[in-house]
Amino acid sequence: MAFFSAVIPRLCLSAFTIMQPLLVDKITTYAALPETPETRNKGYGLIAASGIVYLGIAVSTAFYSRQTYQFIISIRGSLLATIYAQTLKRRSGEMCTDTAITLMGTDVERISTSLRDIHEIWASPIDIGLALWLLERQLAVSCLMPVILSLACISMIIKVSKSKNRAQRAWIAKVELRIHATRQALSSIKSLKVLGLCNRVEEVIAGFRSTEIATSRKFRSLIFWEVLISSFPWLAAPAASFTLFTIISFATKDYSLNSSQAFTALSLMTLITMPVWTFIQTLPAIVQCLGSFTRIQDYIGVHSSSNKVLVESERGDSSITDERTIIECRNAFIRWEPSGCDMLYGINLSVPRGSFAAIMGPIGSGKTLLLETVLGETVVSSGRVSVYPMPIAYCAQTPWLVDTSVRGNIVDPLNFEPEWYRHVLWMCCLAEDVEALPEKDLTRIGGQGFMLSGGQKQRLALARAVYSGCEMVVLDDIFSGLDAANINKICERLLDRHKGYLRCRDITVILSTHNAKVAGLADDVFILKEGTAATYKPSASSTPSSGHQTSFPNDNEFKSRPASPEQQASQFVDAEASSDDNALDFKQTVSLPAKDRSVYLYYLKSAGLGLSILYIVLVLVFAFSQNFSTLWLKWWSDASTESPNSAHWMYLGVFIALGLGAVIIGAASSWYILSLSTWYDLQDNNRLQDLPSSYDIQHCTTSTSIHAKTTFTVYAPLFWLSEANSGDILNRFNQDLELTDMTLPLAAINTTKGMLSDEALGACLLKMIILFVVANYMSLTVPPLLIVCYFLQRYYLRTSRQVRLLSIETKAPLYQHLSETLSGVSTIRAFRRQQWFERNNLLFVDDSQKCVYTLFMIQQWLTLAMDLLACGLVVLLMILIVFSRDSFDSGSSGTAIVTLMSFTQSLARLLKFWSLTESCLGAVSRIKTFAETVPSEAQSKHSDADSSFSMHEKVTWPSQGAIELVNVVAAYRSHPVLKSVSMHIEPGDKVAICGRSGSGKSSLVLCLGGLLPIQSGTVQIDGVDLSNVCSEDILKRLSVVPQDPCFLPGTIRLNIDPDEALSEAALEGVLKATHLSAIVQNMGGLDAELEPGLWSAGQGQLMALARAMARRSRILILDEAMGRVDAATQSLMERIVASHFNDCTILSIVHRYENISAFDKIALFEDGVLVEFDRPESLLSQETRFRALYTSSQN
User: Fold this and answer.
1) Where does the record place the ABC transporter domain (predicted)?
2) Is 728 exposed, middle or buried (0-12, 13-18, 19+ CB in 10 A)?
3) Quick one: which of 319, 301, 302, 299 has its CA closest to 311?
4) Phi then psi for 308, rounded to 5 degrees?
5) 242: helix, coil or strand?
6) Given the DSSP bridges, would you call strands 356-360 and 379-387 parallel, antiparallel or unpaired?
7) Under a CB-based contact definition with an 8 Å cutoff, are residues 401 and 448 in contact?
């Protein structure tokens, strides 16, 4: 019904519009009559008729636009909700993670833009038919010229539309690749900064951007032809029609062309060609819209996550043979993708209800694959896997956390029980960590737990699983990042056979691990090797025991514990009414909009001021050529009336020249602005002077310039990135660039010069000048007109600036929510919380819809106000014509009324596209504010901070590897994480950094890389004070293996040798040393695109070590690099470190102490304080804290 509600207002608009040429005919005829009382009465009637017609146009336009926008808003909301709902249903293995983001950010917005003129598809033919019938009465057979031109252009535009749709799909595919690379980089930005790869990341993303721009050129060229073809009937129809009319007049010896005939015909041609232009423009837009609908349909049409993983049905026809069995595999062959290869073969196993099963095996053996199979996220190609239907508390190998508080990541979205919550913190060893945070459990952790250590993130995910109360818990290698003390406590409190909470409550636990001691607690151990599974039952004696009894609450102590997820799914609590620790509490920060003038200047500078001025000159010349033809037609008709045989060919020649000139100049300026984003500016070489030196861009395109300033994010400090809204950042790379790339250039064409119709700023100005020439007294309206316009724009802009920014910024939570859902869709489905996440998404959709619709209505209010102003001008002109008969002849009246009629149409179109331009300027304003306010760690690149640090030293430094910290105090924001740390490390020393999770070990690494602000003290490497060296320069000269695998978007070669320092032979040697040769060959070789999902965590760590070998720095930092690998891989990595880095200084963060004697020194941290720093034999021979920690780990 929303679609059909606009039909009646649109028909009324057609009726009032078609009355305009009839009104012109009556006015020009009236102006030629002598003044009598009878004609004076006719004049009064024409004044009233003019008011009624133009008031009707204003009101019907307002109602029509309102109903159309309501329809667009309903479509937009439905699409956003449908895309998200389908995302929750699609199996994680079959999703391209960024397709949904592209659909939501690009396709939905293009659909919204394309549907603005949807009703013109049926209304335009009606308008054309009525106007053609009236034109035939004026020009006879000459009326066919606009029809012939229109039909020819429509046939051409249909062919262009087909190619344009294909070109658009190709462009969007490249946009999707760029967004995927950007999202991948943003999700790993902390590790990338530690690795010193910010510059490389910027180059990689810029490469994707360049490819995208190159691909877009075909689409832009087709847009140009679409613009030219659609404007040709408008510009050429008057010249063609009057040419044919003159030829026929010459043949019939009838040379009369009176004013009434000329201006009525001209107004009718306007009414024919305007709907033709609208139809030609709308048709490709609808085709483009259908292309976006097709992409969305393809996405939502894919089957959901159901596959051959079976569940016991409600009817009881279970395929599980034993009632006590909760999981059963029968000769199962399992793969990740339907088109992939089986990775597990003939798996036979069963897990009884309430038991604890452990899964072990070497890296890449399929442990995660088997766990994901239990969740229904993989493909069982043959055999059977049966799982009892229930919510499953799942902890992924890479913890899935959302950008909210610690409490928000643990507690159930619909319920919060303080006592149970505190007990969960204690069981998961989080109580001390929470107390140490600045705002306790309300501290915001950043995207993917940016502010937390690896061990803290894993314990936080574990706490969520325990708090949920699910009857099955699946844990994927959650102990890899934990120290021995925390592992022992968690095992005792949760997994101990006799007193562990999960075991005492008969909760089924399935855990993958490399830790044999943890596996010894299990009832069954499934060992995976070479795609098969073997079952092993540990003996009861292998269970560690303790001298004290762990205290657990009985069943009655927590009667108010959260309801089950199925019960919760039937409830709904408004997220806005929840507490601040709601699981998805996104804080919106609306940036103040920049002044429009500065935004215009910012965009023009990005394009190059010289070429922008040239474009403005072309616009003015075009506007003159287009609008002077109306005044020329008056002179022609006046000359024909006075002397029918006078210089018809001369007048016709100039009339044709003006039309052709408008076509040529309009085409040139349109090609310029559409190509502005892909042309190289040879004039402005200093456009990016505010960027770091890595942007060594001498000639830069507009799109590249704006994108480069946005990519500046990678140089922001860690503290800023930890607080930034990741959805807002992604919104700038997605929505904002979409607006500046395509929508803004098209809107600028319409707004500034009117190539697409007579609706531009230049056209409006020229029409007003012509109007004042032929109607002198109308110039008296200029002062009051300017005053009215001033107050209108002042009243309008004060609101619209904020609302247009809100309309863009309220999309950021949508993208962040979707991005986090894509990262954790397996976890969400396992917990069976899809309904809550879907409803929460609807809240974000509603917030976005309110702002978008409000902006539409504000823009429509301005359109209505200007239409009413135009109505007043028409009435005022009619009053002047009626009461100042001596000042107006038939030609002057016709020129004035036709000019004013086209002025109102121009004004309506101008406001329509100005509103679109204004929305796009909101994106430019956000990018401008973003580029100016984001702090940078790279600013020192522009200055020689330390003249003593010579260029030679920059190349060879560090040459020895000596490290010294003196009374270092470092902090995130105002919270100290390193407190008066002093230590001296000799060149070649091997130092183990120890301590519980969150004690400051990783902060030490960030401090050495210059990524953590130092409040006091000094850090020196080889005698160079790091405060005088840019963090990027420091990190490029360190070899770091981070705790989590980190992948660059691009090829395998790029990921192993990002500095391009090794030859082909040297690269092969590195691959052989790390046992990655076979894996790389199976994935297509070094130049194949790297797919992170195909690399296990252990294989990713081997690649990180290979990257460190390729850089070959004098300092190697291992940030718990071996925590996620099995014993064999750990042994391999230790041998590589010993052989390839034997003469290097090594700092290794360790949680395993089996080989602690291999280190020269031990540094023990507690709560940011270096409490012990000595040789291992010295610390172990005395009563030290490290000895206690070592003894605890051995037990």
Assistant:
1) 327-555, 963-1192
2) buried
3) 319
4) -80, 5
5) helix
6) unpaired
7) yes
Residue 413 CB neighbour total at 10 angstroms: 22
The number of CA neighbours under 13 Å toward the Cβ of 27 is 34
CA-to-CA distance for 470 and 567, rounded, in angstroms? Answer: 12
Q: What is the DSSP letter of 735?
A: I
Closest CA to 234 of 791, 758, 817: 758
pLDDT of residue 8: 93
pLDDT score for 59: 94
The Cα 1178–Cα 1162 span in angstroms is 10
Cβ neighbours of residue 152 under 8 Å, at least 6 residues apart?
Answer: none
Could you count the other beta carbons within 10 Å of the beta carbon of residue 684?
Answer: 17
- Cβ neighbors of 102 (< 8 A, separation 6 or more) are 172, 175, 176, 179, 734
Q: In the predicted model, is pLDDT for residue 681 greater than 50? A: no
Distance, in Å, from the CA atom of 474 to the CA atom of 394, rounded to the nearest integer, reads: 5
Question: What is the number of other CB atoms lying within 10 angstroms of the CB of residue 868?
Answer: 15
Amino acid of residue 1017? G
Q: State the average pLDDT over residues 644-668.
A: 72
Of the candidates 1076, 1162, 1066, the one whose C-alpha atom is nearest the C-alpha of residue 1109 is 1066
Q: How far is CA 331 from its chain centroid?
A: 43
Q: Which residues have a Cβ under 8 Å from the Cβ of 1149 and sit 6 or more positions away?
A: 992, 993, 994, 1001, 1002, 1005, 1043, 1118, 1119, 1120
Q: What is the DSSP string of 87-126?
A: HHHS-GGG--TTHHHHIIIIIHHHHHHHGGGTTHHHHHHH
- Concatenated DSSP letters of 30-47: HHHSPP-HHHHHHHHHHH
Burial 651-682 (b: 16+ CB within 10 A, else e): bbebbbebbebbbebbbebbbbbbbbbbbebe
**Could you read off the pLDDT of 1116-1163 as tens digits, one per residue?**
998 888 777 777 888 888 888 888 888 899 999 887 787 888 899 999
Q: Which residues contact 454 (CB under 8 A, 6 or more apart)?
A: 481, 997, 1002, 1043, 1044, 1120, 1123
Full set of structural domains in the chain with CATH: 4-303+593-933 (1.20.1560.10), 313-388+390-577 (3.40.50.300), 949-1194 (3.40.50.300)
Pairing of strands 524-529, 532-536: antiparallel
Residue type, 821: T
Q: Which residues contact 14 (CB under 8 A, 6 or more apart)?
A: 123, 126, 127, 130
Give the integer Cα–Cα distance in Å for 496 and 488: 10
First to last CA, the chain: 72
Amino acid 214 reads A
Three-state DSSP class for 982? strand
Tell me how far apart the alpha carbons of residues 185 and 546 are, in angstroms, rounded to a whole number.
45
- Band the pLDDT of 561: cuts 50, 70, 90: very low
> Do the Cβ atoms of 954 and 1034 come closer than 8 Å?
no
Tell me the per-residue pLDDT of 469-495, one tens digit each, with 9 for 90 and over: 899 999 998 888 787 778 888 998 999
| 1014 phi, psi to nearest 5 deg | -95, 120
Q: Residue 107: pLDDT above 60?
A: yes
- What's the residue count for the chain? 1195
Query: CA triplet 1117, 1122, 1126: central angle to 5 degrees?
Result: 165
Q: Tokens for 1154?
A: 């089996």
Alpha helices in 760-781 (DSSP H): 761-774
